[in-house]
Please model this.
Amino acid sequence: MKLILLGAPGAGKGTVAKMLTAIDGSVQISTGDILRGEVQAGSELGRKAEEYMNKGDLVPDSLIMGIMEKRLQQPDCAQGFLLDGFPRTIPQAEALKELLARIDITLDMVVSIEVPRDVILDRLTTRRTCANSACQAIYNVKSSPPQKEGVCDKCGSPVIQRDDETVAAINHRLETYNQKTAPLVGFYEKEGLLKSITGTSSDAVVNTIKSELGM
Ligand code: AMP
Model:
């Protein structure tokens, strides 16, 4: 399947994407995960991106399109992909449309996951992430803590609160989402690709996507 997952930070895009990869081997492509990996590796791209990310601002479109142009042409994308956290602005959506036409890829659907703001705020402030950039497993101190406090079940690395998941940074990220990313819903509605799904349960969101795709 070739899908874009839209939704505010904390709407569950990453969880839904991970569940969908298990269905048909499509790969999850999270620009946030790629950028955090670059920051941890100390690359030039990581150094450029870090100051935007820590403030909860978007990284410039040109950096993101450079990453995605390469990533979408890697062989593992042929089976399908789930775009998680990209595109985030109208110029990114326009550049993606041009890129997909050029490399002859057709999207199946754009899913907008709609979750109430209070649920999102609660999820993000209680979310913890594995610090190992190759793992980035997600935990929640209330609903799914690691077995040993502060230690990743999967790889044993420390489990941390991301710098951009403090209350101030989260409020700023949600504002940025409303201003810059929410207009993509209208963009993809016009393209005839949009399916909005309201729901706080990732299982229910995945089941709706499967039935929309006739799976
Ligand atoms: P995420 O894990 O998707 O919430 O992304 C974390 C941070 O990475 C965001 O707050 C942005 O600073 C940056 N980022 C991720 N994806 C994009 C994108 N498509 N465009 C611009 N910045 C992005």
